[in-house]
Each structure stands twice: as structure tokens, then as C-alpha cells.
Amino acid sequence: MSLIVTGTIGIDTVYTPAGEHREGVLGGSCAYFAAAASFYGPVRLVAAVGDDFPDSHHATLSRFERIDTAGLEVRKGSKTFRWGGKYLDNMDHRESLFTELNVLEEAPPVVPDSFKDSEYVFLANMHPGLQADLLSQIESPKLAVADTMDLWIDVARDDLAALLKKVDGLVLNYDEAEQYTGTKNPVTAGRRILDEGPTFVVVKKGEHGAILVHRDGVAALPAYPAETVIDPTGAGDTFAGGMMGHLARTNPSDPADFDTLRRAMAHGTIIASFTIETFSLDRLAGLTDDKINARYAEFASMVAIG
Amino acid sequence: MSLIVTGTIGIDTVYTPAGEHREGVLGGSCAYFAAAASFYGPVRLVAAVGDDFPDSHHATLSRFERIDTAGLEVRKGSKTFRWGGKYLDNMDHRESLFTELNVLEEAPPVVPDSFKDSEYVFLANMHPGLQADLLSQIESPKLAVADTMDLWIDVARDDLAALLKKVDGLVLNYDEAEQYTGTKNPVTAGRRILDEGPTFVVVKKGEHGAILVHRDGVAALPAYPAETVIDPTGAGDTFAGGMMGHLARTNPSDPADFDTLRRAMAHGTIIASFTIETFSLDRLAGLTDDKINARYAEFASMVAIG
Q1: Would you state the torsion angle of the CA atoms of residues B248, B251, B253, B254, taken in this order, to the nearest 10 degrees?
Q2: DSSP 8-state code for residue A279
Q3: In degrees, to the nearest 5, what angle opens at C-alpha A254 toward C-alphas A251 and A260?
Q4: SS3 content of chain A, % helix, strand, coil (to 5)
Q5: Which helix (H) or strand (E) holds B269?
Q6: Alpha-carbon span B81 to B108, nearest angstrom
Q7: CB neighbours (10 Å) of residue B158?
Q8: Which residue in B90, B301, B304 is closest to A184 by CB distance?
Q9: Residue A200 · residue A178 · CB < 8 Å
Q10: d(CA A14, CA A12)
């Protein structure tokens, strides 16, 4: 079924604790999500970049053949969003070195008419007011899920609360769940968010996995125990891409069902475990379905205890 | 099959972030382990206390009918080990308020002759030199597993390294794995410890679950996503108690087998999830097999993704 993602496409500079770094690589929540989701089926991308967006990054995106870039706006005279960050010793924590919003400060990208019948909608991390605006352009979403970040909880809390009334699910980090709700326990935090509207919340814990807090139950999954962790950028976005991609591919009668989501999270877990093995989308660009399926099977047997 | 545990029995004072506290409650690695393991079968306890050890704590231990206290020495004129601690906002971190070693500074307890044929041996947290000494008194262990802590890594590293050559498995916390090996990645840390002798290492991550690093593979399990967390004291010891108790009960031909251990860890996960719901052994003292089995089944279905 039709899956659409809106969010940012950026040019990233990333420093790792091991001393390696990459300048000007392809990044952004939407790019990571779409690349991951494309392993499961077609994905429609809506985002804006400037005319400084390098041909090589266009080429990288086009390597993911099932990404439909009809909604990728290249704006003359605008500059692409740029972000630089440094991972601290613990790969789950990072500091931003610089953030140049550029095109993100302009009018949001337009959803092409041909995308308006999308059934699966992922609102990757951006201002919750824009997320709501983009969601309103989709005619009849079957499942709408949003991501968010600490910045929006700080500066756009009301917009985020309004968005929560319109989406089926929210995906956010462990620290952000605490920030939004004031409670450290991720299950309690998740329940408080459910009280504001959604059917489910996925609390992402990086290397420690994820917790699903749903009106019908609670579930936890570990991360795949990866030994090769070079650059965690995009892990959360590709997790969401695998989760939503699997849901769109299987198109269950109720994609917000507890057990369905729990299994979809496992697919997100596996695609995310590849993402972090190198910088940017490099690992995904060379990934095959066979490798994904083999790791999924390994992971499934790793947690099979029934 | 026969399971033996050696370690500390203490009198604890515990402060929680919620402002609650308990003074003088039953604690110690050996007490927690034995209480948990007793749900799976008989468990032989070897530890020493002073004559200040209250009757009420003896009574609590005797509520766990399958704990054999023939190896519990009550020393006239000695004082019981006492520990006070305060949990910080994050329940996974605590500070020690006081530590009175008392009887732990005297000669170690003696393994009764009737316990020397024990097949499953758990060396709960204490000085690794004493752990090795106690292990040497067991005639023919089928599976020997040790726990340790940051203090011994600091002050008795050589003794710990020597112990690693004698045990099948080591159980330790995430921070301790890093402390011992100098690497943050728990899988890499585990592999380095394997190089020193054991067949497997279990890296405990508190609320984030545990990772098994084994010569034959790596596995991860989440913790049970608990909403009621009052006092995490003893979570790791009862995790080990459930794991070893399950192994002793089922007595597989190779208890150090990867898949066998992976499943045993799930039993540890569940019994630990009860421990933290109240102070001391209070929750375990009122626990039934039915409750354990129901939560195990819930957990198994929560992580079933195959």
C-alpha cells in the first residue's frame, strides 16, 4: 500500500568518538526513513532542498529505486538544511555543533496531488505545526505516525499536543518521553501520552531497544546487539522506516493493532542495526534483502523464549 | 539438581527517589539469589551473619521453604554485614551511604560436607579470592557462575582474572563490563572477558535488560517493562537466581549451551521484575508460581516475532 514520508533532507557533518568524521554527507530524517522503507516497498518522499544539494546526493537517493521523489522540491536560490553533530563516548548521546535551517525556514514543501491518496503516513521529525499541515493534505490516512524531538517539546509544545490528537502513533526517544511527561519510567510516560490522543507510543532507547506502549498492552524489544557501531545518525529514522515499511507492505486490516505493531518494530530494529554500521546511507545503499532477512531470522531466534 | 549459592547476607537501609525508605531490612546477594532460585527448586545457602541478625529475618528466609540454611553460620559476637544506599533519579544508579563489612572481614563461611556434591554453583558478589576458595570446596561442579562488582575490579583485579579461569560464566553489570575491559560496547566487552576463560558472560543492563555473550553467539533480551519500580536492590541477584534455578531444575546435558542459557536468562528476567516492586524480599515472599508463570508467558509473547 502507499506509504508517504515528510520531513527533512539535509547535508550532515558527523564526528564519532573514535575520531573519524564525515563532512557534507547525505542526511535528514526523511532521507533515512525513505531509504529504509524502500526495502519493504514503494515510498513517497515529500521534502525540500536547495539548489546546493549535490548531484551525488541525488544519485544516492536514486539508488533506492522504490523511493518516489516526485515530492522532492529543489528550490532555486535556497540552501539545503545543514547539521553538524558529534557523538559522545556513549554513542546514544550527541551534541549539535551547528544547525543551519535554511530551506526549513521557508514555506513547507507541497504534497503532490498524486500523493494525496497515501494510506500510510509518516511525519518524520520537524515542527509539529508543519507535520499537522502536511497530514491535513492527505485525504484518508489509514495509519498516521509522527516523530518529534526535544526542540519541539521545548518551543512548540502546544502544536505537538494538537498533533497528538490527529495521529495514531508517536515515536520518540527515551529522554524526550521523560521531557514531555516529566516521568522517567517509559511505560508511565507512554501512558500519559496515550491520554493525549494516540493509540500507541514507541519509546526508542537506542542501543537498548524500544518499548511499545499501546492501549491494548505494553511490549519491549532489545536492539540487535551490534558490535560495529560507527555512526548512529539516522538509527531512529530508519527504525521508523522499517516499521512503517513493513506495515505498508503487509497492509493489515488494523495496522494500529498491538501485536501487528510489535512485530513491525522488530523489522525497524533490524534495518536500524545496519544503518549504524557506517556513515550516512552508505550501509543501506549496499544492502540486500537477503542480508536483512538473515539478520531478522537471527534476531527472532535470539529473543524466542516461548 | 543441587544448586548452591555463596555470598553475603546483609541488613540493608534503602532510600528511593520517591522519598520512601526502609531501615534494617533483609538483603545481601545470597539472600536475594536464594529466595529467587527457591521458586525453581531446592537451593543450598552458604553465608555468615552475626548474632545481631534479627529473628524476623531468619523467619523471612524460612518462608522460602526450599532454601536449605544448613550452611548459614550465625557467629556469636560477630556483627552482620550492613549496607545503606540511596537510589538516584534514574533507578539504575545508586550511591552507597555506608558499608559495614563486619562478619565479611572474618574467615569465610565453611561449605558443609553435605553441600560439597553440589552441581550448580553460583558465587554471588563478594571478594573473588573468597569466591575461588569456596568454589574449590565443591567436588565436581557441572556449572559454575560468578557475579562481581566495581569494587573488586578496582581492588582485586588479579583475583578476579584468576577466578575467570575457573568458572563457566560471569554475570556483571554494564558499567562493570566497561570498567573491566575499557570498552563501552557490551558485546565487545563480553568477548574480551571470554578471552580470559569463561564460556559465557551475561551483561546486566538493569531496566534495559541483559546481553548474553557466548562462545557460540550473542543474544539480547529486554527487561520486563515494569511500571512499578520501588526498590531495585537485588534485581541482579534475583535475575541470577532465576537463571541458575531454572538451569538446575531442568538440568540439561550442557547447561552452558548458548540456547539453554538464553532461555534461562528469560526466567531470571521475570523473577527480577517482581523483586523490584517492593523493598527487600517482600514481593518474593508473597509470590506464587502461577504469577511467575503468567508473567513469563506474557513476556514470551511480547518478544515473539518469528
Answers
A1: -30
A2: S
A3: 75
A4: 40, 25, 35
A5: helix B258-275
A6: 13
A7: 9
A8: B90
A9: no
A10: 6
Residue reference for cell 565443591: B138
> 3-class SS at B83?
strand
pLDDT of A91 strictly over 80: no
Q: Do A220 and B302 touch (CB under 8 A)?
A: yes
The predicted pLDDT at position A1 comes to: 76
Would you place residue B17 in the very low, low, confident or very high pLDDT band (cuts 50, 70, 90)?
A: confident
Contact partners, residue B80, CB within 8 Å, separation at least 6: B9, B10, B11, B49, B50, B52, B53, B102, B103
Annotation: CATH topology of B3-298 = UDP-N-acetylmuramoyl-L-alanine:D-glutamate ligase (3.40.1190)
pLDDT of B228 strictly over 90: no
Q: Is the pLDDT of residue A98 over 90?
A: yes
- CA–CA distance, B48 with B33 (Å, rounded to integer): 15
Of A185, A297, A303, the CB nearest to B227: A185
Average pLDDT, chain B: 96
State the Cα–Cα distance between residues B120 and A12, nearest whole angstrom: 53
Considering only the beta carbons, identify the residue of B89, B185, B299 that sits closest to A229.
B185
Residue B166 pLDDT class (50, 70, 90 cuts): very high
B72 bridge partner residues: B47
Report the chain B residue with the minimal C-alpha distance to residue A230. Answer: B185
Whether B209 and A229 lie within 8 Å, measured CB to CB: no
Q: What's the burial of B89, exposed, middle or buried (CB within 10 Å: 0-12/13-18/19+)?
A: exposed
- The cell numbers describing B102, all together, are 563486619
- C-alpha cell at position A143: 495509519
**Which residues are registered as beta bridge partners of A26?**
A11
Question: First CA to last CA across chain B, in angstroms?
Answer: 32
Predicted confidence (pLDDT) per residue in B232-267, tens digit:
999 999 999 999 999 999 999 999 999 999 999 999
Domain A3-302: state its class.
alpha beta
B265: closest CA of chain A, how far (Å): 9
- Residues contacting residue B55 through CB under 8 Å, at least 6 positions apart: none
CB B123 within 8 A of CB B100: no
CB contact under 8 A, B304 and A302: no
Domain segments of chain A as ranges: 3-302
Angle at Cα A102 formed by Cα A96 and Cα A104, nearest 5°? 90
Of B150, B16, B27, B19, whose CA–CA distance to B91 is shortest? Answer: B16
At B99, is the secondary structure helix, strand, or coil? strand
- Alpha-carbon distance A152 to B295, whole Å? 37
How far apart are the CA of B160 and the nearest CA of chain A, in angstroms? Answer: 25
- Given a cut of 90, whether residue B19 has pLDDT beyond it is no
Instruction: Please give the grid coordinates belonging to residue B82.
Output: 550492613
H helix or E strand, kind and range, residue B300: helix B289-302
d(CA B215, CA B194): 7
Which residues neighbour A283 within 8 Å (Cβ) at sequence distance 6 or greater? A274, A275, A276, A277
Above 80 in pLDDT, residue A22? yes
